[in-house]
Design a protein that fits this description.
Length: 224
């Protein structure tokens, strides 16, 4: 018994005393550090989204997290140190309510005081992919008696994807505005196709070449 006590309390006594003093000093620093709060906005992570489903909501993409802790820790805190997530592995098409409060992670030594929103709803729909035409959008000022006869897109169509109910509403993709000011016969421009419907996107987007072909409108002759 005496040998055991010596090993525990006497052996390397100097090192153990220093460790004890360091621990006590650290505790005093933490205990005396003022407690402060900070509010951070962090993106909500959507984890384990089923392969065949799409999120059919765009309302909730970030959360406001109020964090409390020692000032020295809070001062070093970055928004990337805090995360909020929801697990979507069991969702099916339709609307579902999610609770966010218990799905927030902060560094050790800090506490979550408030989460906004505490709950939110997301809608889900089956993913749909289909091909739609590309409609060039041509703008500009032209010489008197000239007008756009044709605007041809190459490629003439693109694949789009997104929630089925939204994809079904899309009639065509359109290009960014092409300014053909001053074109007399024909000219080609490089643009990009996009879909204005929210949450619907172009699959493998690539530049689109728009060829603008002009013609006489006949108005100039009529004026004579």
């Amino acid at each position: 018994m005496t040998s055991f006590v010596k090993r525990v309390f006497v052996q390397n006594f100097g090192l153990k005393l220093i460790s004890l003093m360091l621990a006590a000093g650290l505790w005093l620093v933490v205990a005396r550090s003022p407690v402060v709060e900070v509010v951070l906005k962090v993106p909500i992570e959507f984890r384990n989204v089923p392969d065949k489903l799409e999120i059919d909501s765009a309302s909730f993409t970030e959360a406001q997290i109020r964090v409390r802790g020692p000032e020295r820790l809070v001062n070093r805190l970055r928004s990337t140190d805090v995360s909020a997530h929801v697990d979507l592995s069991r969702v099916v098409p339709g609307t579902r309510t999610f609770e966010l409060t218990s799905n927030v992670n902060v560094p050790n030594g800090l506490d979550v005081v408030q989460v906004d929103p505490t709950q939110f709803q997301l809608s889900f729909d089956y993913r749909m992919t289909r091909r739609v035409d590309v409609r060039p959008r041509v703008i500009g000022s032209f010489a008197p008696g000239m007008r756009v006869a044709q605007a041809l897109a190459d490629p003439p169509s693109v694949m789009i994807s997104g929630p089925r109910s939204r994809v079904e509403k899309v009639e065509a993709a359109t290009t960014d505005p092409v300014d053909a000011t001053g074109t007399m016969e024909r000219a080609s421009f490089v643009s990009h196709a996009y879909v204005p419907e929210p949450l619907v996107y172009v699959v493998q987007p690539a530049p689109v070449r728009v060829t603008v072909i002009m013609e006489h409108s006949g108005e100039e002759k009529a004026a004579h």
